[in-house]
Amino acid sequence: MNYVYILKCSDGTFYTGYTNDLEKRISVHNKGKGAKYTRGRLPVKLIYFEEYDSKNEALHREFAIKKMTRQNKLNLIKNCQQL
């Protein structure tokens, strides 16, 4: 399974990423070994994710979410609250 996820950083900003192992990736972020963006904004909290069968689909969705405004991301999270 492939995942697109949104993290909420300690400073209130969002980080969107892709992985094929969601639990491991969140752990890596919180150990300060994830994306450069999240390293200085720890701890991070998983607030949203989507599942995809193919990596290609997930990567396309990640790109689309990254282009969204903060308000659009908030609406996405609110309308599909799963955590």
From TrEMBL:
UniProt xrefs under SMART domains: GIYc
Source species of the chain: Clostridium ljungdahlii
Gene3D superfamilies referenced in this protein's UniProt entry, alphabetically: GIY-YIG endonuclease (3.40.1440.10)
Sequence ranges assigned to domain GIY-YIG in this UniProt record: 1-76
Protein name as annotated: GIY-YIG nuclease superfamily protein
Signal peptide: none
Top-rank taxon, per record: Bacteria
One Pfam family this sequence matches: GIY-YIG
